[in-house]
Records
---
Amino acid sequence: MTRITQAFALAAALAAASPAHAAIEDQYEQDTPGPAMTTWYVSADPAALQADRDYVAGMRPHHAGALTMSRDYLADPASSSPVLRVLAQAIIRNQTFEVALLDEVARNLAQPSTTLDLGLFRLAWRPAATEGLAQRTRFFRSPIPTRLDAVSDPGKPVTARDVQFAKAMTIHHQGAVDMAREYHANPAARNGFLGLMNIDIERDQEQEIGLMQKVVAQYRGNSDAVKVDASMIHGMDGMGHGGHAGHDAVMPVAAPA
């Protein structure tokens, strides 16, 4: 590849990295063999690299915590809500894939930067992420129930365990939303792949929070009396943003009017 070709390829990659739309890794042709996985590049700025590393170091264990919480809920005989059980299964499938995306980002962040010498100036860049993992693994995002689903199926009553899971996961999800917004607000954060991923995280997890609030509203007892121990909320260690770290008890989840 010539220097000029390299320069154009880099410029195209950097342009594609602008978070102008979502969703990341969400669309591909199911019956096609799938293209080779492609690498996203950003400028080799130390502050940007640190922002990406800090983000992955926070979001990756946070997502893993959601998987543990969902599996614990599904394994509990006291779990009753069909809507929450479908949600927990979707969380496991969707966030397992997002963990794989974050692991791939981490692999890219560990790669050395490259300097392109164009004569009049030098351009330094580094790998930032890899696109194409969904098609390679044939992953399709699992849909989550709607808020209407939460009130249209009275087949099983909402239990205290359901409320407990919904409260714990609501606070957990809010932590991810806050982390995504903090990355967007960080002027050093320039990874367009993570930017797109964060748009999806904000959209999906806010939708899921609304769904869980609807389920809590269906509880026939006093939902404020249902407490959640901090040990039930996984993956929050080291997250000092938004006051989410170090819970002793879960705040009540306000039911929508």
---
Amino acid sequence: MADTIQNPGNITKQDLISALVQKELQFAAKLLPTITNVSQFAVKGAKSISFPKLTSFTVANRAFGAAGDATALTETADKLDLNINAYVAWLVDESSAIQSTINWQLEAAKRAASAMGRYVDNQIITELVAAGVPVSTPGNISYANVIEMVEKLRKADADMSKVVLLVSPAQHSILMGLDEFKRADVYGSANIPGGVIGFILGVPVMIHNGLSDAQYLMYEQSSCAIGFQLGANMSEQGANEYGALSKRVAVDQLFGVQALQLDEKDASATQSPLIRIYA
């Protein structure tokens, strides 16, 4: 059944549909809660957001009566470019819509928002995979590889309460066959959060269609950031060449995604130590 529009006051029908688009997009973008949202810094006029990184001080055992050497801090930065201008548009032919048994305008808006949500997830996955440090033993997911991922993240000072294991549907099938995943003491609590299919070594496991069959990855929330400079907006204009009441509708949003902590610990200049992958 299609959603109905109820107007509590002087809110326009377009405002209400835009709110529906926002709600549907948040529901479809399953990976947003697993990374860091820095939208508050994506202010008007900004083209990017920088994340400064400082080196650490080295403590020396200064000899009595001798001068100590000063240590210099070096500053670098990870930069999130606000350069993803996501856009989708469609035509509402009122002659066809009026003969449909569904609320065509609402259903089209919901599907556009779902497509936007999947697009956001795919951009996150692309960034995570590009910045991930590969596991040492290639191949399908195994208990040994999961142990290695957990170990490497711990050594990178990851907050393990904010770590997730993301698997493709094909890797999920293999994971389900692992005794370590099926055992209750490894699987985890029966109280499973939304989007999580279980636990292994205390790490929540999520499945996502945006990964290719061979892909799986483990990452911490602060390993990647997303910033929305312009949230999902919807507008419409007349398209009377398709009939007097026909409309052309568009939904767009402007955002950026960036892996963080690049070139730290055992990672290269293009990798984050807080992302471990097989892809």
---
Amino acid sequence: MPLLTELYRQPSGKPFVVCDISPPKTGDADLFKDLTLLKPDMFAVAYNPGKGVSASSAFVAAWMEMNTLTPTLFMLATRDMNRMAAQSILLGAHLFGLRNVVSVMGDKFLRKDANECLGNYNLPATEMIRSIKQMNQGYDFRGRSLLSRTNLCVGSTIDLSRDLDREINLTQKKNLAGSDFFITQPLYKASQAVEFMEKYEETTGGKLTTPIIWGIQIMTPGGISFAEVPDWVSKDLSRSREGIDIALQVIRDFMSSGLRAFYIVPPIHIGGARDYGSAAALVEMIKVC
């Protein structure tokens, strides 16, 4: 399957669309049937969302690529593994033809979880990026030769809900470590993206030329959000405006600013269920924008 950066740079003239999917809390493949309705340029499999036990993101990504023939990336949280475990998973994913991965730290466990599940915070996402780049050169984390090089395209995340100066610093570190692309948490106005890129250039002295996939979440009344929801969105939802319509407005705002790559997060209901039908409808709308 192609690398995300290859698909991103194809001169199709159309927006580039990645769609987020949540791995099920089961090994039953029947639960994936609804996903065949989705026609994005790439799927993205989350890693144990909500810190709950779900099917392995790498295994789900492999299933998705084999059964939908759509390129799929998977997320991998360094919180749950050391360097040896992470590189073993990556080699196995490579064996199944997966080429795209996003390095994340993962949300910290609460104190009440400490007796049952301890997090490993000795492997920052930035170090995971360097580790993957090392594998692409043919070496494991100890510097020992692998039998062959990997060909992995590694991405990382940006969260503009946090302190902007701190996030610019983290983004620069990830960029220097070799991140091939970035995915942002959901945003609701293009001016946030423009401000970030302008301040990044002002702070670092250089433009951020690495591809950025801008997060757009379809909201629903009472739904779960990955980012702070603006008052105008909440008010529109309370007046029975469709979440798809709001998301399309945000996307058009981004496109008017020249930003044409989107990471679509389907509506998330209490309990974690996702409305992939709404995501499929939005993806089709984006294609004709």
---
Amino acid sequence: MFLLPTIFFIAVFIIYPICTSINLSFVKWNGVDAAKKFIGFGNWEELLRDVVFWRAVKNNFTIVILSICTQIPIGLFIAILMDIGGKRFKIFKTVYFFPMLMSSVAIGILFIYIYDPQFGLVTNFLNAVGLDSLVRDWLGDPGIALYSVIAVICWQYIPFYMVLFSAAMTSIPSELFEAAYIDGASRRHYYVGIVIPMLKGSVRTAAVLSLVGSLKYFDLIYVMTGGGPVDSTELMATYMYKNAFASFRMGYGSTVAVALFVIVTAFSLLVFSAIRKEEQG
């Protein structure tokens, strides 16, 4: 009986929308008219041949790899620095967390101006230090636009992993540090040999969160580039939105949404399965 309210909201806000999206993936519908034309697997056949969709998939996995390889190590490094500093660095922990408190839309607009090739902060800095040859159209060059946005994503989410690892470090008994110090271990040996291995569970959790979040990413990309230029920053979520709500192809947009759901679920299950096997092994 106590679970009934939870089951009700899960059914209404999760299960029903998923089932509706699956049903819409088999029809041709503009999202406005009452009439829906059943076309079977027509949307899915188009999806398999859609070059833009597969480019979006590639971009999503690029974000996954670079996010995991950047956010988690830097977040762990900052957490260790905060732990070493103790209460003296408490103010820095608060300041470093500011990006997580900002709206993604506000961050996107802010970095559009920072990346401006004429008057932006990055361009002015490179000109000031004599590196004007490195100035680029950071959001307008298809070759670097995605990496420019990934840098902003990492800047926004590194504080989250810093707090995650800092919280995990508080559960490590102080007696371990005292014992290591008595045995002659340096601070570096303590963190490398004791702290980091004990944070293995938190690192796994962070990797899963980064994986799922990167595959579903939408807002910052949409604000900063809208998926351009030339689809170089297109993601599955932005491509789904454009088809469903901008091009009024609700059926095909639902197909992209279901494909996104399947990909995220499959990779999440694979990661959880690998983690479970490692823990049992």
